[in-house]
Write a structure and sequence with these properties.
single chain, 145 residues, Rna Polymerase Sigma Factor, Chain: A, 68% helix
């Protein structure tokens, strides 16, 4: 069965923000918030760190929005900012990192190539359905995901 829900196109929203409608950026945060938070939460030990890094990702993306090339893959551009901030977090906190955080970092690095291939093969029409299912989970299970 084909999903007829149109995918979010960030380019018109980016154009609005760049034209002075700063409030339109909320649509970007709303659309990509769960993706960015989930990506980061899977790679750091403390949920608060993931939330801080996600917020920093959206602030940095907002500051660098003029550098985004309209028509290119906004999601990949945004996730590269999240990855950059995550790498900085790991570097900065390396001496203070817990054993679990170091373990997650090592695992994430070792499967990075596989994740990239899997990401490229994802049927993006299924993502909204998956996110809808995740939102219906109890809080404790949602945090695990």
């Amino acid at each position: 069965m084909q999903n007829n829900t149109p995918r979010f196109d960030p380019n018109p929203t980016v154009s609005q923000v760049l034209s002075g409608n700063k409030d339109a950026y909320r649509l970007i945060v709303s659309e990509y918030g769960l993706l960015v938070r989930g990506f980061l939460a899977a790679r750091v030990y403390h949920l608060a760190d993931a939330e801080d890094l996600a917020q920093d990702t959206f602030v940095k993306a907002y500051e660098k929005l003029e550098d985004y090339e309209l028509g290119t893959n906004f999601r990949a551009w945004l996730m590269s900012i999240a990855q950059f901030l995550l790498n900085n977090h790991w570097r900065k906190n390396g001496n203070r990192a817990t054993v679990m955080e170091k373990f997650r970092h090592d695992i994430a690095e070792s499967i990075q190539a596989e994740l990239k291939v899997a990401h490229e093969e994802v049927d993006e029409s299924r993502i909204p359905k998956l996110l809808d299912c995740i939102t219906k989970l109890p809080d404790n299970l949602r945090k695990v995901i």
